Amino acid sequence: MATDTININVRLTEKSRIDQLDPENIVFGTVFTDHMLVADCVNGEWQTPEIVPFGDMAFNPALSSLHYGQSIFEGMKAFKNEQDEVLMFRPLENFKRFNISAERMCMTTVPEEIFIGGLEELLRIDAAWVPKGEDNSLYLRPFMFSSDEYLGVRPSLNYRFMIILSPAGKYYSTPPKVKVETEFIRAAPGGVGYAKCAGNYAASLYPAKLAAQQGYTQLLWTDAIEHKYFEESGTMNVMFVKNGKIITPAVSTTILKGITRDTLIQLAKNMGIEVEERRVSVEEIIEGIKNGEVTEVFGAGTAVVVSPFAAIGFEGVDFDLPAITENSLSSKLKNKLNSIRTGQEPDTFGWVWKV
Predict the structure, then answer these.
(1) Do 95 and 235 share a domain, yes or no?
(2) pTM of the predicted model, to two decimals?
């Protein structure tokens, strides 16, 4: 079996597990589709990709990625329209960002025909797993890790690229309460903050755990130098609505170039909403919440899409935000985005990719 652009060896499962899927009760990241894609790069040469039944893999204990963290990933989503066609959203942007991460982590880059062609073929095979319904989607997880069996510290000579798929529902059941983090940092200038590498997420777990013990759902990260300026929130980009205008931190080497972020900026401008990309100080936002100028704060990312915050905690005080309504900018943007990517309204931007 082959795609239009690349040969892929396919071994189908003998028995589907789709009867395990309850579309009404999907817990993020806990259920996986029947198949996965595996492609190995051996001494710089990509081997023929394979689609095989989802399952465990065996590795040597000296696998270099386990020791030195050469590991990157992407997060994407697929949807079904009313005609039961499977749609991806801006997959080429994820492909480009994946290879930017690969270059920063001194890893080999993945050819487009393996990344995109592999995604398409895997989605064709597991199309029945794409759930319908509001807030439902199929989460796509391309990832790559170094696979040298060697304890020396060096860029790996061998890599494994994989794609797994997981049905997804709503990420947060209620609006999160977030804490402004002024002790720990997510990224520093010259580091790897703009890459989707595993270590970035591992380093965030401890401060997130401390925040959870204080009653917060997530963190609002600040800059590493002064802790005065917002950067991201948890695993999301962050946006603020001030006096009817959207402001968001400008992307940099410490801030991930979010695809959902870019999408919302383009949508907002198209809807006549003014957008500013600049440094955003903690002081400006806290004062804005106090005096009523800041009416919305929300996260933007593939998993959450648009996630309005209920409150922001800063220096031991929680600052409540107004309740979100259908007239809120975050609601309008989310509804517009969902309508486009599920095929409910025309895609004038060229974002939707039919499988």
Answers:
(1) no
(2) 0.94
